[in-house]
Each structure stands twice: as C-alpha cells, then as structure tokens.
Design brief:
27 strands; 2 helices; 8-stranded antiparallel beta sheet; Seminal Fluid Protein  PDC-109 (Domain B); mainly beta; flat
Length: 419
C-alpha cells in the first residue's frame, strides 16, 4: 500500500512568542497572556486574531482576586564604629545580628626612618651683609636639604633684631597681625607696657573737670580739646564777661550775656547769644531776656560786621466782629482779623433773606482787598445745601451770588489788604 505524506497535522507548542523566529502552520505560541496558532509560515509579525497569519486559541484571563496583605517588612540599618565594628539597628523592635569586627590584622611594622645627624656650613664667608648656606645630612648619608642664614649688617647681628635684645633694631618690626606675648612689667619710661599694667593705669586715673566749661580755664581737661568740643554742643553755654568782645565770636556756640560785654546790642540786658559760622561768614542772634527783644547781625570778609537789627516778635492778631447788614443775623460768629503780614481772614455763617447780589456786610478801611476777591460759599435753600460764591470788593462790600433766595450762607475768605 503506498504511503501518503499528510504534512503537519497537530499543534506544535513553541513557548512564548519571540521576535525574529520563523513559525510554521500549527505552531502554538503564548503572547500577552493569550494562546495563538500560526496559520501559515510567519516571521516578525506579532500574534493577533487576524485570521490570516494567526488565530486566537485562548484569550487572556480576567483580573484575579487580590491576595491577602503580606507581612510588613522591616529595615535593618548598619553602622560602622571608629574601631571598625559593624552593628545594626531596625525599625521593628526586632533582634539585631551580632556585631562583627571588620578590621583586619595589624600589618608589619615598617623600617625606622632616617634622622638628622649634622648641619654643616657649606657656603658663604660670614661677611657682614651676606648670606651663608647650611646643609642638613641624614643618618643614611643622604642630604635632606639646605637653608640660608643672613649674617647681619656687621657680621654679628648689629643693626638687626636679636633674641636677647642686646642690639637695638634699626627698622620697624612687622608682626603681620600677630601678638607680642610675654611682655614683662615696664621699668623705664621707654619700655613697652603689657595689658595688665595698662588696665591698672586706667583704673588709677582721676579726671577732674570744672563745674561748667569756662573760657580760659586752666583745668587740663577743659582748657584743651575737650573744652573746644564741649563749647560746640547745643547744651553747653559759655559765660561771657566785660572783657569779651562779641566781634571775636565767629565759631558756632551758645553764650550767656550780662549786657556788659563789648559790642552787645544797645540797651541789651542779660540774655543769650547764639553764634553759627566760621572765620569767613557768621550769624549772631541775641535774645534779651529782660526786654524780651531779639537782635541779629552777620559777619563776612574776615572783619565786617553788620549793624544789630531788631527781630520783630509775632503776636496773635486781634479778632473783630464782622459788621453785618441790617437784615442779616449771625448764625455762628462772623469775624475778621489781620496778621503782621497784612493778611486778612473773614468768615462765618449768617442767616436772613439772602438774594442774589445782596450785600451782607462791609469791611472797614484797613481790612479791604487790593482788588475784587471771590471765593466759593455754601447756601441754605429750602432746607438743603446749594453752591454759590461770595465776593469782597475793594470798597469793603461783601456780596453773595449764585442763589436767588437763600436763608443762610457759610463762607471763608483770605486776602492781602490794600495798605
């Protein structure tokens, strides 16, 4: 009976799909959780249920039930001591492994090093102002190195700093920010002073000062620079006398006057002098406490003083009641006043039958403006407020404008008078 080759007639498991592998029909592979059968020879075509290259045999199963919570883990942390012993700690209050000494055995001792056996003079003549060379030799016969030594200006150190201090230095000793230590107590006036001696000297000093700074004081503290410094302070007042000339006072300071000094203002009683300036320009102001008067004068070009000029003292201006028209009555005081700068202030509130253009008051002479002055005002009309204006003429008449029938007006004005 003849044999007939049927070819491949059963599934051939090939394990997980591998890219680059050639598969033939009926090869069975696993891919992404599913099982696929090759329908023909295929290579580098990922399995899918396309019906041409592959056929899905078994799809991937669904998500399984979550398992039980596992036992929590613990962390063991190692540390190594300076002696080379490793030990552990953990975050679960559990027994730790036994410590382990990880240091190795001591190594063999090395050979003994070489030592210095001599320092020999190997160069130079020792002549003043020259440098000689010295060589350091070791116990193994080798040379460790050389160094140089300066012989000094005279060959013996004269003119240079010596450790015993027997020869004075000819130059400065540069310490480079370092301290000189071990200084003994001074014996001569030219000796250096140590910190202890300096503190004792400071504690023993007694400073005696005058009760107040006085010109010409012989006290060594007040008569020198301290006196000059204090005389420039605001709270220091120097008392002057009959021999003192105010023309010589050009620097800043405060001085007490008795009215008997040279070149004081005529008729000045006791008081104070305030001076500011220098040798080129200065200003003096005198306050007479007896006559309650102020004077001032200036100084320039080294010797030229101006005359004393009285300084007028400002006084509060007298206030007067504003003369209102017959049919106008004050609601609040209506007043006027003039200060020392010829500025007039007028204001208040008044009531009555107030018509547009009506004159409600007249200022007397001496309180009238140079030209017409107009300012905003507030009127009372039918129980409400309304805007308008008030005008003062050079003849002193004060008139209202902007409302035909008002029962009150509030105004405030200021200006400079004609004379």
């Amino acid at each position: 009976m003849p044999n007939t080759v049927l070819g491949k007639v059963s599934l051939t498991p090939q394990g997980a799909y591998r890219s680059g592998t050639r598969y033939t029909a009926l090869d069975l592979v696993g891919y992404e959780g599913g099982g696929y059968i090759a329908l023909r020879e295929v290579q580098d075509i990922a399995p899918s249920d396309d019906g041409v290259n592959w056929m899905l045999l078994a799809a991937r199963g669904g998500e399984g039930i979550q398992g039980a919570q596992g036992i929590p883990g613990y962390v063991f942390t190692p540390s190594v001591s300076a002696e080379g012993v490793i030990s552990w700690t953990n975050n679960g209050d559990l027994p730790n492994p036994d410590p382990i000494d990880i240091t190795g055995p001591e190594g063999p001792r090395g050979p003994q090093g070489d030592s210095v056996v001599s320092i020999e003079h190997t160069g130079g003549t020792g002549a003043p102002g020259t440098t000689d060379t010295y060589t350091v030799k070791l116990s193994n016969g080798s040379i460790a190195g050389t160094f140089q030594v300066y012989n000094g200006a005279d060959g013996n150190g004269a003119g240079d700093f010596k450790a015993d201090g027997s020869v004075p230095m000819t130059g400065n000793l540069q310490m480079g920010g370092n301290r000189v230590v071990g200084v003994g107590s001074a014996q001569e006036s030219t000796d250096a002073v140590n910190k202890s001696d300096l503190e004792k000297a400071i504690q023993s000093v007694t400073i005696t000062t005058d009760a107040e700074p006085l010109k010409g004081s012989l006290n060594p503290v007040q008569s020198g620079g301290v006196f000059s410094a204090l005389s420039n302070k605001v709270n220091q007042i120097i008392t002057l006398g009959p021999e003192d000339d105010l023309n010589t006072i050009t620097t800043s300071g405060f001085y007490r006057l008795n009215g008997v000094e040279i070149n004081v203002p005529s008729g000045c009683g006791w008081g104070t002098l305030s001076a500011t300036g220098d040798q080129n320009t200065a200003l003096q102001i005198v306050s007479d406490h007896i006559n309650k008067q102020f004077w001032k004068r200036t100084y320039r070009n080294s010797s030229i003083w101006s005359e004393w000029i009285p300084i007028p003292a400002a006084t509060p201006p007298q206030e007067y009641s504003l003369p209102l028209a017959a049919e106008i009555n004050p609601i609040t005081p209506c007043n006027y006043r003039k200060n020392q700068f010829s500025e007039v202030f007028v204001g208040g509130s008044a009531g009555g039958l107030i018509e547009d253009g009506a004159v409600i008051a007249t200022l007397p002479e001496g309180f009238r403006p140079k030209q017409t002055v107009e300012r905003p005002a507030t009127f009372a009309v039918s129980g409400a407020q309304a805007a308008g204006r008030v005008t003062i003429m050079p003849d002193g008449n004060i008139s209202v404008h902007g409302q035909t029938s008002a029962t009150g007006v509030v105004f405030s004005m200021d200006f400079v008078v004609a004379n």
